[in-house]
Amino acid sequence: MSKKLVSLITDNEHKDLTVSDQLYADALRKAGCDVEAVVWDDPSWLQNDGPERADAVIFRSAWDTWQSEARHQKYLDFIETLDTRTRHLFNSADTVRWGLTKTGMADLTPLGIDMPVTVSVPTPAAADSVLAEQGWSRAVLKPAVGASGYGVTLIEKGKPAAPEIPPTPGPWLVQEFLPEIKNGELNVVLFNGQVSHMVRKTPAQGEWRSNWAFKPTWGTEPIESVAAETAQRALSFFADTPLYARVDRVMIDGRFVVLELELVDPSLFFVFEPDAASRFAAATLERIA
Length: 289
Known about the structure:
By secondary structure, the chain is an alpha+beta fold. The protein has 8 helices and 13 strands.
């Protein structure tokens, strides 16, 4: 019986895989799979029937796809190609397309998911009017398409916008600032809809963002029942249960307030929870058996 081939989609910077995904690849190999890392914009893989050869294609660390409108469109075209040429794509093309645009978070409102108040605007220049309308003294401004903290900044009423705001096409999101973020963002990781582990990312001193680039501290924490229940409820929106998901949130007065639902290629923190790599491998094999 031939080994199953799992192709992990990444970018040129991570062509040897992140340390976390190396643990996942090792777990897949221990389970009897062959594993290859595929740089998404290297055409040779597509030209050599890579999607057809793979038993599963999994998005893991293609983190250079949103810096321009043209590059984002190229990535959407790549996703469409995979959807038509591979047997098992995770997450599904529809789920990944949903996850690439933060405006989709509004779809979770009917599920009773607590989320910060968020207003979509065409350009950063329109953010001041949202501050006035909402009565906010400050808010988070971020592009609807982006990741890893790209373009995310704190804006304040009566002060000029930060000069580092990139010229990214709209829409942009103006989001209620939650001061509780200083206590840490809690990331709940799920495989096939089942909760695996939770990590707290605490911002560095004087910082409010907890993305890797801003040097937070990390640590695993026990998963409260409200965290597990809310994370699973959020995933119930999708007809095709995502193979992997990360639900990012803060706790406010005992409420699980969801900031983002990460479904494309989020960090899954196997470095802090090594056994989770084996759980992810097992979940993967369940879906391609």
